Amino acid sequence: MFAITPDSSISARIDVTVVLGDMVWVPAGSFLRGSKPGHSQSEEPQRTIYLDGYWIDKCEVTNAQFAEFLNAMGSGFFDYQMGIIQRRGKFTAAAGKEDFPVAYVSWFGAQAYAKWLGKRLPTEAEWEKAARGNFDDRDFPVGKHLKPNQANYRGNNDPFEMGPSPVGFFNGQTFKGFKTENSPSMYGAYDMAGNLFEWVSDWYDKNYYKWNIKSNPKGPGNGQERSVRGGSWFDIPNRLRTGYRSSASPTIHNEFIGFRCAKSSD
Q1: Are 180 and 149 in contact, with CB atoms under 8 Å apart?
Q2: Contact 262/126 with Cβ under 8 angstroms?
Q3: Which is more confidently placed, 135 or 193?
Q4: What angle do CA 38, 149, 156 make, to 5 degrees?
Q5: CA 125 to CA 245: how far, in whole Å?
Q6: Do the beta carbons of residue 16 and residue 169 sit within 8 Å?
Q7: Which of 48, 170, 239, 258 could covalently link to 183 via disulfide, CB atoms 3.0 to 4.6 Å apart?
Q8: How far apart are CA 71 and CA 204, in angstroms?
Q9: Is residue 32 part of a domain?
């Protein structure tokens, strides 16, 4: 992937109305997973899947939150390209980047962070339900269409055009003349479309949706890459669809992938 440095001139911390660290509840029940014909075959067939209830982070994990993890657990998952600095053995978010989503985190780093908090990564099915809703066949978390003021993606002309935006930024606020629309998913999760791709727990298999598993699917037992969902600031809207599937090596860490955590109901 291309290496693009976010605009370093954006230094002011952005106030958002969502509370960092909050989780939203996704109730038990069925939803439509996958896409109708016309997209990638990896998204087919669309079928009804049942999931137990679970919690999922309202926002992507931030630089400030990940810095706390590094201070507690050591520098093993630190990357100097993160919006985090190390000084005299202490990690802190770079000034003005506290509320931006942490990137340059491998799947292993994301998993370790979640475990540290007593959480886990969501399954691919859990991620998709949290983004789409129950039986709503919506293409995006906000509905059938996506407007430029509802998500951070390539060409939407937001103030963070060449990089991620602060988590929960698309909540109705106006910044530098850019008026956002409040754009959570049906269950109240923000940035499920765009900003950063997100690691989920599953191994990736392009044919997995053809497996006839109708209750709490957890993905294949093994594989070479892990699934990532949601699209990023660098992607066009087609890759931000709720049904869009992609993958990456679990060891990769780049500017396009972040994560959020989940927690079972028990």
Answers
A1: yes
A2: yes
A3: 193
A4: 70
A5: 11
A6: yes
A7: 170
A8: 31
A9: yes
> Is the predicted pLDDT of residue 118 greater than 50, yes or no?
yes
Amino acid 21: pLDDT? 52
Q: How confident is the model at residue 20 (pLDDT cuts 50, 70, 90)?
A: very low
Is 143 within 8 Å of 254 (Cβ atoms)?
no
Give DSSP secondary structure letters for 37-75: BTB-GGG-S-EEEEE--EEEESSPPBHHHHHHHHHHH-S
Instruction: Give the phi and the psi of residue 200 in degrees, each rounded to 5.
Output: -125, 175
* Domain-located, residue 12: no
Residue 107 lies in a domain: yes
**Which of 5-9, 137-141, 195-199, 252-256 is the least confident region?**
5-9
- CA angle, residues 117, 121, 126, in degrees to nearest 5: 130
Query: Rg of the chain's alpha carbons, rounded to an integer?
Result: 17
Q: What DSSP string describes 132-192?
A: H-SS---SBTTBSS--TTSSB-TTS--TTTTS---TT--SS-EETTEE------TTS-S-S
The CATH number that applies at residue 254 is 3.90.1580.10
In a domain, 251, yes or no: yes
Supply the range of the domain harboring residue 245: 24-264
Cα separation, 183 vs 151, whole angstroms = 8
Contacts of 18 (CB under 8 A, 6+ apart): 58, 59, 167, 168, 171, 190
Structure tokens that stand for 24 in this block: 């939203």
Q: How many CB atoms lie within 10 A of CB 227?
A: 26
In sequence order, what DSSP letters do the residues of 66-84 get, joined into one string?
HHHHHHHH-STT--TTSSE
The total of structural domains in the chain comes to 1
The answer to whether 218 touches 49, Cβ cutoff 8 Å, is no
